[in-house]
Amino acid sequence: MRTWSTPHVPVLPVAGPPVSLFDARSGALVETRPEGPARLYVCGITPYDATHIGHAATYLAFDLLNRAWRNAGHDVVYVQNVTDVDDPLLERATKVHVDWVELAERETQLFRDDMTALRVLPPEHYIGAVESIPLVITLIERLQEAGAVYSVDTDLYFSVTADEAFGEVSGLDRDQMLTLFAERGGDPERAGKKDPLDCVLWRGERPGEPAWDSPFGPGRPGWHIECSAIALEYLGMNFDVQGGGTDLVFPHHEMSAGEAQVAHPGSAYAKAYAHQGMVGYDGEKMSKSRGNLVFVSALRNSEVDPMAIRLTLLRQHYRPDWEWTDDKLWNAVDSLAAWRTALSLGAGADAAPVVDEVLAALADDLDAPRAVAAVEAWVEATNAGDDSDPDAGASIGNLIDAALGLAL
Ligand code: ZN
Fold it and tell me: Which residues are close to ligand 1, an ion, with C-beta < 5 A?
């Protein structure tokens, strides 16, 4: 699938430190140690609606990781999927009387435009579920050889008990898993399953739904196997970071890891699992079912500077849940005006310590609020008349572009 355009990223005069990240599986801050290029997989959208601020926060968090790795001297291989066939997409297409392919293409393009406006670096491989069907089929066959697949009617299921490490990604107990599985697209109640937590690998054709030929009969891939197959193809096992929102920890990341680990025994799926907290609005988690979404494209259509959206997101650490408010956005608009004034002066307060502090903050579990605070201190000093560093404006301009993705 076509990705989006790469913004110019300045090269900084100093390298950043090694990047540490909070890993959900170990429950600890871990130093990433890429061998060769750093390998990152972030779960992509199901393109049935526009990008909301919660999505934007996720892709921006992993954009900071991508940039921190690059600034530390690593090449990065970044892979993202697009779930361009799945139940929510088909249901929405039926509801609004639009062809599902057309809906998926339209919303995927809107997502690309939003990511471009927010200066999110594109993935090197941007892969759709539909185009990954041959990869999914191969992986299911491998799981069949491992004895981890059984059928219920025309559907194929993955036996979660086949993965000895099942449960380690989320660290949840069985009751918690059953609750979340039911809430997040699973079917624990379905008759004929060996374990209520087993997940669909291949969904046999239903009347009125799209289907593709396979050795298992016509049908379409399950969601978790789509990501495992794409990650294995483009990154291989033991890649550096699996990223997504906290709502993907279970079942999605647990199942994707389990399927890959049963197909490739002896190695782990990802070295670390990192998750963006949920973004709320009007006191509730931002979600389609609650109808309290703030769309990036709607803000852009209201002439809001995408860099102000980006700064609003940067002022929140990626891990805790937080609430979007219009005040936060308008504060960011005002701040950017002060930032632009300071940058336009040319000379300013000493830039070198700010460069060190921003790179250190981002390498420390992507602490963007700390990085932003360092820049704001520089802006304040510069606007108050400190002109001790003749090239400070250019240095800070490059820094906030390369490390924070803000081009002013
Ligand atoms: Zn995924």
Answer: 43, 227
